[in-house]
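Justification of resources, computational component.

The compute hours requested in this renewal are based largely on the per-chain cost of generating structure records like the one below. Each record pairs the submitted sequence with a full structure-token output. That output is archived, and it is also reused by downstream analysis tasks.
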Amino acid sequence: MSPIKTVLLHLDASPRSALRLEVARQLAQRHEAAVSALFAVTSNFVEIPFAMAESAAAGEIVLKLDAERRERALAQFTRAMLNAGPAVSWNELGTEPVIWGFTQQAFYADLLVLGQRDPDSATARDVPADFIESVVLGSGKPALVVPYAGDVASVGQNVLVAWNTTREAARALSAALPLLQKAPQVHLVAWSDEENGPKAMSSERMQIETYLAAHGVKATLHWYGDGPGSPGDRLLSLAADLGSDLLVMGCYGHSRARELVLGGATRTVLKSMTLPVLMAH
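The structure output for this chain reads:
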């Protein structure tokens, strides 16, 4: 029985919300899970000057804009739910800050489904720029992040796991096990460094193979030495070469020391991802 039983989906007014909904329903179908959709956006009041916010006329306009955005999101949700699939409940945040409010609900979910931020989209300001990182780090829950461009026909048929001996990578691997157990193909990639010689690599390889086998996962392992390009770019390139439809990786915090573990791979992938990414902290 899969431990994924509750999925929390973030919705806004962007067209990609419908795709995120479809991804969440696919996962729910596969893992017999319940999906709760949460419409969570920043009010337009935040975007107007303080003096204007106190104006009754300006306030009415902003309330109308917020209501229209909600109606667009709800209409998209309603249309998408006409397609066959598991039921999804519609929920909304109140006036609380988006990151705080969504994180509070995330505590009660096994998996989050979020959307990559498109900085050029008209809906880019619906949520703060650091929404994904803040929710993942603040809730401690794994999140499946759906890219803002490209088709997502399937998730979890061909999975690439980014591995290194850190807490974040271990958390991501553990969170992804239910998906890996159902995946026809699993690849795991790790890069060595100057302190990680052949003997240490051999021992680590044996340990990770033993761990995965204990959970019924057979993976093709890829072990590389240091090379050109950032780890994030290399991960995305390898995912494309392998035809992967899901990347699993740790989400590293804002501490400079932690970012250096993967050379800023978290930032690179969140900015340039071309496939769904499961992250955990």
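The domain at 158-280 is CATH 3.40.50.620 (Rossmann fold). The mean pLDDT is 88.
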